[in-house]
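Per your request, structure below.
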């Protein structure tokens, strides 16, 4: 099996993430054009329930599988790798059946009482069968990550989005005459089809790359897997805690938003529309650069785990510092453009700019979200998953406290929700950083903080001056494209001048390695 270095694996996932993120935006644009804000709101209200069920089913196993498979692979223990997979499939299989059944049973109550919009029932029922599909996929992803082969996961991500896009327009338009709830259900079916295609590809790659037969003595491996189960759970349980907090947070968010906005005197239809703009339009734009940070995090876990086992503290510090540096660099330009051109971007993508003020408000603070994922991955790799879990819990409590306190007031409304999300991001990121500082004395050098400020400040200043000069001579869209191109070039130049990307890192990419030579 082909194994990649830390940066090679990261770059493969970044390339796939970039493609899938762009395709994902095409998918969202289609949804927005076909169903409008209210339809997207119904769709987005059903999604957190699905994420909660998936989180409970996965049980934190992808990270645990990745870590344990990497350790077994380093020792050449093929039998242990098989035992890890057998135990993991048994766990996820049982949990997926259980939680899929719960989704079918409680969907009417969740739709009618918690989400306060009975139209979400149909999307909730339709999406339930996806849980076992994703459960099996997560085990395979953990296996390939542990073997440090990111290509199968990368290709499966692209395949999923292509299938989803090819089916979403047809299915939503087909079901729209029956009502918005059925159009949202059609969008959910496209998600299922995409995940199924991704799973089939992963199974095909697994059958080609595996070094053992899964069905042979399956039960024997399962019965002798008590120690393996304990090893997996030692990582999976606290990891699940962090993800469960995030999923419960997503699950409760539309419920608390609906209830709080109702207290503020906002009707159900308007609340659904406003939440659709925030969750369906604004947040996807804000988390757009996160595919890079997610890629770094996936590759970071086995890399830091190996360095920790060898007690290579200097390498651990370097990897965390490298991840923060690259994560910040990946989100800086997006932050500047989203802040400066919020109305233009929303109008161009979704045909409405009603929520532009929320995008401009939230974008600068989301710079800290981009470094949050690598920080959490570092904590998990250093067996500090419990600290990450408690940080996530504290952040969720603070977020919901602020949300209810502000969104229930008519003077804030949906803006209170936006502020609460920002506060949650800030709290969790700073707590993760504090945990690393305490555990391994990690510090972000003052020089790097200065360079980060210079990178953002200079790029933003140039963009502001260009906007002032050309504002009266060009349309908003033309101005955005012109400044976007120029700022992108300037930003890349500054990345090299300020050494956010080093020559040594470029040498790990075959194409640049030849050029540098």
């Amino acid at each position: 099996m082909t194994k990649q270095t830390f940066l090679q694996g990261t770059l493969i996932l970044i390339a796939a993430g970039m493609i899938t993120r762009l395709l994902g935006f095409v998918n969202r644009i289609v949804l927005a054009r076909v169903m409008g804000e209210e339809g997207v709101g119904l769709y987005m209200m059903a999604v957190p329930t699905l994420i909660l069920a998936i989180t409970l089913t996965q049980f934190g196993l992808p990270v645990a599988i990745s870590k344990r498979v990497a350790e077994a692979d380093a020792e050449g223990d093929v039998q242990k790798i098989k035992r890890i997979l057998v135990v993991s499939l048994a766990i996820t299989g049982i949990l997926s059946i259980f939680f899929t059944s719960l989704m079918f049973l409680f969907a009417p109550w969740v739709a009618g009482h918690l989400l306060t919009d009975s139209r979400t029932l149909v999307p909730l029922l339709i999406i339930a069968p996806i849980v076992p599909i994703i459960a099996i996929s997560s085990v395979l992803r953990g296996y390939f990550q542990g073997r440090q082969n990111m290509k199968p996961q990368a290709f499966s991500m692209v395949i999923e989005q292509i299938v989803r896009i090819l089916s979403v327009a047809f299915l939503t338009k087909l079901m729209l005459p029956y009502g918005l709830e059925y159009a949202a259900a059609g969008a959910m079916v496209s998600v299922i089809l995409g995940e199924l295609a991704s799973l089939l590809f992963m199974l095909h790659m697994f059958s080609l790359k595996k070094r053992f037969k899964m069905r042979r003595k399956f039960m024997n491996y399962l019965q002798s897997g008590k120690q393996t189960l304990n090893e997996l759970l030692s990582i999976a349980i606290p990891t699940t805690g962090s993800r469960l907090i995030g999923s419960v947070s997503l699950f409760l968010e539309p419920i608390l938003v609906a209830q709080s906005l109702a207290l503020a005197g906002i009707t159900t239809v308007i609340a659904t529309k406003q939440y659709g703009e925030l969750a369906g339009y604004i947040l996807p734009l804000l988390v757009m650069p996160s595919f890079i940070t997610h890629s770094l995090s996936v590759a970071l876990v086995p890399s830091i785990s190996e360095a920790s086992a060898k007690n290579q503290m200097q390498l651990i510090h370097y990897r965390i510092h490298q991840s923060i540096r690259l994560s910040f660099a990946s989100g800086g330009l997006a932050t500047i453009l989203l802040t400066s051109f919020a109305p233009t971007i929303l109008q161009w993508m979704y045909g409405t700019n009603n929520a532009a003020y929320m995008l401009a408000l939230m974008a600068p603070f989301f710079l800290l979200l981009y470094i949050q994922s690598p920080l959490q991955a570092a904590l998990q790799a250093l067996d500090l998953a419990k600290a990450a879990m408690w940080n996530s819990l504290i952040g969720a409590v603070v977020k919901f406290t602020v949300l209810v306190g502000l969104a229930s007031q008519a003077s804030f409304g949906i803006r209170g929700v936006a502020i609460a999300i920002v506060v949650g991001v800030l709290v969790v990121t700073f707590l993760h950083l504090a945990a690393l500082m305490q555990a391994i004395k990690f510090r972000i050098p003052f020089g790097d903080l200065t360079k980060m400020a210079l990178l953002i400040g200079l790029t933003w200043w140039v963009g502001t001056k260009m906007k002032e000069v050309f504002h009266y001579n060009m349309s908003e869209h033309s101005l955005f494209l012109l400044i976007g191109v120029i700022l992108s070039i300037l930003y890349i130049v500054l990345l090299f001048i300020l050494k956010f990307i080093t020559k040594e890192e470029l040498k790990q990419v075959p194409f640049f390695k030849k050029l540098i030579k």
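The CA atoms of residues 333 and 488 lie 7 Å apart.

Regards,
D.
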